[in-house]
Amino acid sequence: MTIDDTGAPLPIEARTVEGMLFNPADERWQLRDAAGSLSITWIRFDRWLMPGLKRSIQHVLLWYVENRSLSLAQNIHNYLIAFLTAIQPSAAPKLASFNKAHVQNYRSRLQPGQQWILGVLSGFFVRWSRQGHPGVDAETIEFLKEVKFRGNRKGEAVSTSDPQKGPFTEIEAATIAAATGDALATGRLSLRQYCLSVLMAALGSRSVQFAALKCCDLEPPDLGRTDAAPTWILKMPRAKQRLQAARTQFKPRPLVPELAELLQSHIEDVQAAYASAHDTETDLSELPIFPNWKHSGAPSLQYHSTGTELGSELKAALSTIDARSERTGEAIAITARRFRYTVGTRAAEEGLGEYVIAELLDHTDVQQVAVYVMATQKIVDRIEKAVAMQLAPLAQAFAGVLISSESEAVRGDDPKSRIRDRDTMACVGNCGRHSFCSASAPIACYTCRRFQAWVDAPHDQILDGLLRERDRVLEVTGDLRIASVNDRTILAVAQVVHMCHAKRQGASDAR
Question: Is 379 a member of any domain?
Fold first, then answer.
């Protein structure tokens, strides 16, 4: 169906799914909600399209903005730009309609792994036809309905345990946890960034769910209840529920007190920051937990960050921490999605069924969770000393420093700072901490940045003891997950042994 005029006029007022008012007749759409943002400059389409065809596209994308989500509308817009760039040379006459040949032309240009993009556009064109807007003929629609487009390969990063995109190993997860805690203590991570990263690691929720959180969603323990232990609850907004706004349904998630109290402290900081900058009376409990003060947004999500913004913030913040993978020897690529994959994989390793995993990850069905059950990671049955020595330089699990003698220690003049092997009572180093430490020495010391290990201490014996204990626990319990709890510490001690050998060898060569 060809069109020559400008098409049906656009309304002068519309609302997004989240209730944000805007004028669809504007040449620029600039919108945002918890799921993401939408930015379209319509004049860009003038190089390819006649006014009527452009107007039909505006009408159909408006439907997605009003009934689906801004992020989906943005993706469709981006795919449309790629589609037009491919089928319409710059010197060609402007298009007045789309036909089957255009679709076939674009399909031939896509790689097998990109066919799903045309599948998304197919849904857009079918919606276009259903709404009755001119510009796409019946033959094109019939062709799109008949063609089977190869979908986007889902779950590949999980099924292959991709070291860059897939779930974290147990050692990587422990490394990230230790590194984020250290970064918070030294001021390299803000309390906001720390809470966001730990919540993502613990809950595996999507970034858009964290973006939709409000201060009122953290509920303190009901101290009046006697039938259960006091528990902090975070009411997590559900996501990906079709035709529903971001805060329509909630899923209560219990939090450990230590994390909940840190999150409560962060919430108080958010509320104090808002109160100091605004004179108007506002219900501070309705403020977002992770705000973006630069954007007001929809009325129901005022000052909320988008899921995309939080994902980018997390990735940028955690790229600065010192966390290396024992698989690659490089800095761990940390993303919100990898935290989510890890939660799903660990749940499967614990023997939880598909329906339980679907509930945990907030899926409406079990179609997407089978990959976790199929791809449970194998924990090494036995770690030999040679293997530990080989992996240690890659993992970089040792967080302290190596010193030649006690005289170089921060608290070398304080006998109480000495760290001893509990079995032999031999000294292995000093603690640089000037306050009480409740960690179990010397095992916890090797992954602590305040530990100062002595070059001539019996670290080999510590390593041998840890390896024997791992084998003993495995034999008694038959549970690899329990037996492997100290695997990262084993690599840290092995790294110290490796460093000591290298230092002594260097001293010997110098003589």
Answer: no
CATH at residue 265 = 1.10.443.10
Q: Give whole-number Cα distances, 181 to 331, 332, 493, in Å.
A: 17, 16, 20
Domain holding 406, by residue range, is 385-510
- Identify whether 1 is part of a domain: no
Peptide bond into 442 cis (omega under 30): yes
State phi, psi for 113 to the nearest 5 degrees: -80, 0
Q: Are residues 184 and 63 in the same domain?
A: no
And the tokens for 489?
A: 């510490």
As for how many domains the chain has, the answer is 3
Q: What DSSP string describes 59-98? A: HHHHHHHHHS-HHHHHHHHHHHHHHHHHHS-TTSPPBS-B
Q: Is residue 7 domain-resident?
A: no
Calculate the CA 370 to chain-centre distance. Answer: 20
Terminal Cα-to-Cα distance of the chain (whole angstroms)? 89
User: Per-residue pLDDT for the chain (511 aa), expressed as one digit of tens each?
Assistant: 444 456 789 999 999 988 889 999 999 999 988 777 899 999 999 999 999 999 999 999 999 999 988 989 999 999 999 999 999 887 789 999 999 999 999 999 998 888 889 989 999 999 999 999 999 999 999 999 888 776 556 677 787 788 899 999 888 999 999 999 999 989 999 999 999 999 999 999 999 999 999 999 999 987 666 656 678 999 999 875 544 567 888 999 999 999 999 999 999 999 999 999 887 778 899 999 999 998 877 778 889 999 999 999 999 999 989 899 988 889 999 999 999 999 988 888 777 778 778 888 887 766 677 777 666 655 555 677 887 888 888 888 898 999 999 999 999 989 999 999 888 889 999 998 877 676 688 888 999 888 999 999 999 999 999 999 998 988 888 877 788 888 889 999 999 999 999 988 876 666 5
Let me know how long the chain is. 511
Whether residue 219 sits in one domain with residue 253 = yes
Distance from C-alpha of 480 to C-alpha of 466, rounded to nearest angstrom: 15
Residue ending a domain, among 374, 395, 412, is: 374
Whether residues 415 and 365 share a domain: the answer is no
What angle, rounded to 10 degrees, do the helices at 191-203 and 336-349 form? Answer: 40
Residue 444 resides in a domain: yes
